[in-house]
Structures are given as structure tokens and as C-alpha cells.
Write a structure and sequence with these properties.
It is built from 12 helices and 13 strands. It is of the alpha/beta class and 382 residues long. The relative contact order is 0.17.
């Protein structure tokens, strides 16, 4: 099986990540911060070391790093923990449902939102669109670092400047960008950075990360191991947002995932993955009946991720054929109907290709040949 579904979760995991997970089960078996015995303290210290690594990696302080179960939870914490009735939010036309569904749910609580448009050939056009959507009650901008459907990156630095100018909170869904492109919250003016470590940081699933540089209300209350006599949630972070037991083995393995990415180097990882995706894009552009939806992936505005279709086939038919031929790709709407509406692919969906640092050039070439042969049998019909 040639695995090219790293936009959903990265696989395989690096050996050091797998070893760290097993070591956590063997040596850090106590509940961190819940007991006074030596093993609990030892486990809490191991978790803190990962908080510090994550804070250094993403530009924050250790106490600003929380470990929810996934990026979706992190986004819910950021949105529902900071927005109030009467607020207005600006988001983009490329968002995942991890952003859109919480915003839609918040409408019932009196929070309005607007979607800024952009040109996929010039993502910087989103700044002017945001300016037109600005209201007196606008409180936050929440955007993806890069589309999980087509790989278009949003101009985070420019959006951060826009937010600072208009005194807006800035929340970033970095599910696809973290571990692939540099994201430094302090430098970019990001208040809430929401990460899916099981993707670009090669951590196990069930391990999320939220870097909160602005105050948040808890949306889940419960035991934290701190101030147990009080019936109100602690005010101190990270305990304020970490009710219940965290995924300690996953968090410790995440620390090794950060180490792996640092050792490899973000630049090297990005260059390798972009080479894979650009070579596939160039090949498929020469194939009859293969439909592409974005310009050639470019280092200035793209993640190493792309989508395509064959003729008028539904994307799931194409992915099913490729699965039978030994290639793991994801088809459909990718939980991001807003992006597919922008690409005009709501009915057909798309097939997504997302390599990793482990992807080999010969694997991409083999995929390209299979797509080309399949496409010859399925012309575009109208």
C-alpha cells in the first residue's frame, strides 16, 4: 500500500515517536498532576517538557499550551470560549467544518459570521475582502493556515497585521500547516493556534494542541488536580482548559514528533513534499481527462497537497479504483463543503493527494501512471 492520505493523518509514524509512545506506557503510567507520589510527579514533568517544546516550536509560553483530544476540540475551545452574543466573526471561504460548524452553532447564541472570498491564484485578495466585511462588532478572524482540499495557503502574516490594526482576535486552524510550514504565533500575531499533531507533527491520533495567548472561558469543567475544594474552574492555565485526564502517552509521543520535525528541518520537509506534489501535478496536467482545480503548487502560496478528478466520475469512484491498485487517497468533500463550493466541486467532490516526508518519488510516478491509464477510459462528459 502506497499511503498518500497524510492530510487526514500522517503514516507511518517515525520510529522515535512509536518508541516514545511505548516508553510512556511503560515508564509514565501515573496520572500527571493528580497524585503526590513520585510516579505522578515524574509523569507531570514529562508532560511539562512537551508543553515547553510545543511553546518553543510555535512561539508561546508553556502555560499557554493545552492538550485537548484533537484540533476540532481546540477550535471549539477557542471560538466558544472567547465569543459572546453580539459578536461578529470573519472567516474564509475555504474552511473545514471544524470551524464552520462551531460558528453555525454560535449563531443560535447571537454570534454572527461572514465568509471572506479570495482568488485561489492570489490568496492575498482575502485581505480586501475582509476589509469589506468588517463591522463595528467584529471581534475575531478565524482562518485555516491552508486548505485541506486544495492546499492554498492563506497569508497569515498579512491577516495578523489586519487583526492588530482593527484590534481583533486572531484564531488559526493549523491542522494542515503545522509541522510543514513555519508558524510562530507571537511573530504572526496569532491569539489562538489550533493544531492537529497527528498530521504534520507525526504524533498519535487523539492528541490535540491549543496555544492560547489570550484569555479563554472554559467550555468543559471538571477535575483538574488543582484547587479541589473549590467548585469553580481554576483560573490558571493550562488547568483551566484541561479538565479530566489528558492523553499522556500521546502527548509524550508528540514531544518526539516535534523533535523529529526539528531534526529533519521544516525547510527540508516542505521542499521534499512540494517536489513530490509538483512532479505529480506536472504529469497530470499532460493527461487527457484529468481535471485540476488550482494553479501549479507554488512555494509562495501552497501547501504540499493537491486535488483532482478524472472526467465526470465521482471522486469516490476514482479513489476506489486507486485503492484497489494499492494507493490510499481520500475522496469526497473532506469535511470542507465551503472549499468545495468555492471550487465548484460540491457534487463530484475531489480526490486529494497529500505526501509526507516518507513519500518516495517512484511512488508518485507509479500513482501518476495509474491515474493516466484510468483517465483514458473516462472522458469528460457534460
Amino acid at each position: 500500500m502506497i499511503y498518500l492520505d497524510n492530510g487526514a493523518t500522517s503514516w507511518p509514524k517515525p520510529l522515535q515517536v512509536r518508541r516514545a509512545f511505548c516508553t510512556a506506557l511503560e515508564k509514565y503510567g501515573a496520572n500527571p498532576g493528580r497524585s503526590g507520589h513520585a510516579l505522578s510527579r515524574k509523569t507531570a514533568e514529562a508532560v511539562y517538557r512537551v508543553r515547553k517544546k510545543a511553546a518553543d516550536f510555535f512561539g508561546g509560553r508553556p502555560e499557554q499550551v493545552m492538550f485537548p483530544l484533537n484540533c476540532t476540540q481546540a477550535l471549539n475551545f477557542a471560538l466558544k470560549g472567547s465569543l459572546r452574543p453580539g459578536d461578529h466573526v470573519i472567516t474564509s471561504c475555504l474552511e473545514h467544518n471544524a470551524v464552520m460548524r462551531p460558528l453555525e452553532a454560535l449563531k443560535a447564541r447571537g454570534v454572527a459570521y461572514s465568509c471572506a472570498d479570495l482568488d485561489v491564484k492570489q490568496p492575498g485578495t482575502i485581505i480586501a475582502s475582509m476589509g469589506r466585511l468588517l463591522r463595528r462588532n467584529t471581534r475575531m478572524v478565524v482562518v485555516t493556515a491552508g486548505s485541506n482540499v486544495c492546499g492554498i495557503r492563506l497569508p497569515l502574516r498579512e491577516i495578523g497585521v489586519f487583526c492588530k490594526k482593527h484590534r481583533l482576535l486572531f484564531c488559526v486552524d493549523a491542522a494542515q500547516g503545522a509541522g510543514v510550514i513555519p508558524i510562530h504565533a507571537q511573530e504572526l500575531g496569532i491569539d489562538f493556534l489550533c493544531v492537529a499533531p497527528h498530521k504534520g507533527l507525526y504524533a498519535p491520533m487523539g492528541t490535540g494542541l491549543l496555544l492560547a495567548r489570550a484569555p479563554l472561558r472554559p467550555i468543559i469543567e471538571g477535575g483538574t488536580g488543582l484547587n479541589s475544594m473549590e467548585l469553580v474552574q481554576p483560573a490558571d492555565f493550562p488547568e483551566r482548559l484541561e479538565s479530566g485526564t489528558i492523553n499522556t502517552p500521546g502527548v509524550i509521543a508528540l514531544g518526539s514528533g516535534i523533535d523529529f520535525v526539528r531534526e529533519m528541518g521544516l525547510g527540508k520537509i516542505y521542499a521534499h513534499e512540494m517536489k513530490m506534489i509538483q512532479s505529480l501535478y506536472d504529469y497530470l496536467c499532460q493527461c487527457p481527462n484529468v481535471v485540476m482545480y488550482t494553479p501549479r503548487p507554488d512555494e509562495s502560496f501552497c501547501l504540499p497537497l493537491m486535488c483532482f478528478n478524472i472526467g465526470s466520475l465521482h471522486s469516490e469512484e476514482t479513489a476506489e479504483y486507486l485503492d484497489q491498485e494499492g494507493f490510499a487517497l481520500r475522496a469526497g468533500l473532506h469535511c470542507a463543503p465551503a472549499a468545495h463550493r468555492k471550487l465548484e466541486t460540491l457534487e463530484q467532490g475531489t480526490v486529494r493527494v497529500c505526501p509526507s516526508v516518507f513519500t518516495k518519488e517512484e511512488e508518485m510516478f507509479a500513482l501518476a501512471e495509474k491515474i493516466e491509464n484510468f483517465a483514458k477510459k473516462h472522458p469528460i462528459t457534460h
